[in-house]
Amino acid sequence: xxxxxxxxxxxxxxxPHQMHMSRLSRLLTAAASLLLLILYVTPLWRIxxxxxxxxxxxxMRIWIHKLGGVKEYDLDNINQxxxxxxxxxxxxxxxxxxxxMPWVLAALIGAGLVVAFLGRRRVLYAWVAAFVVAAxxxxxxxxxxxxxxxxxxxxxxxxxKVPGTVYQPPIIGTKxxxxxxxxxxxxxxxxxxxxxxxxxxxxxxxxxxxGARPAGARERxxxxxxxxRATPARPATARGS
Length: 241
What we know:
The protein is of the alpha+beta class and 241 residues long.
């Protein structure tokens, strides 16, 4: 086969510094991936309900693998209140996302560590895109879940009926639902996921800036040497012929 020019010279014409991630970009990617481990031990989201009859408030925490009350009997009390207005019982066993979300997160963490190890920019871009898609899908699924519980009511068996009222809590922020003030915010795990996303974007920015820089003297010399070696030597011609 003979000596061949490296792919970045003969094929894609992309210099090495534009194909590989810098050390900082790889560290940011690894940090973003490892930070997502926090989601296994901390709640992702928190919904709070405050009313005159519940001045201490009721709360519900959502993890990636379970769902429960902030206090011991909060979820039971929320389900009792939901019964009066015709909402279904909130049963963690009936939420399939809680079973497969830990595996999705594990795949995302593992892929991020692989990206940091390989140090290839295009693989980094694919991983960050997958991260964004997973986060967006999770928020949309959360919104769909709250919409379903807040709109699809059992009017026939509801004790309290207020025509035109829906009981969907907010995804982020505060909303008044009858005499309850409902508040929904990211919990520790949600904040950690947001920071991990920011680190992932920072890794992309650093990688793109490094790729936009002109090749250094060593890289230019290595590129020239690779081209020289790949060029077959011309046979010497006899003088006077």
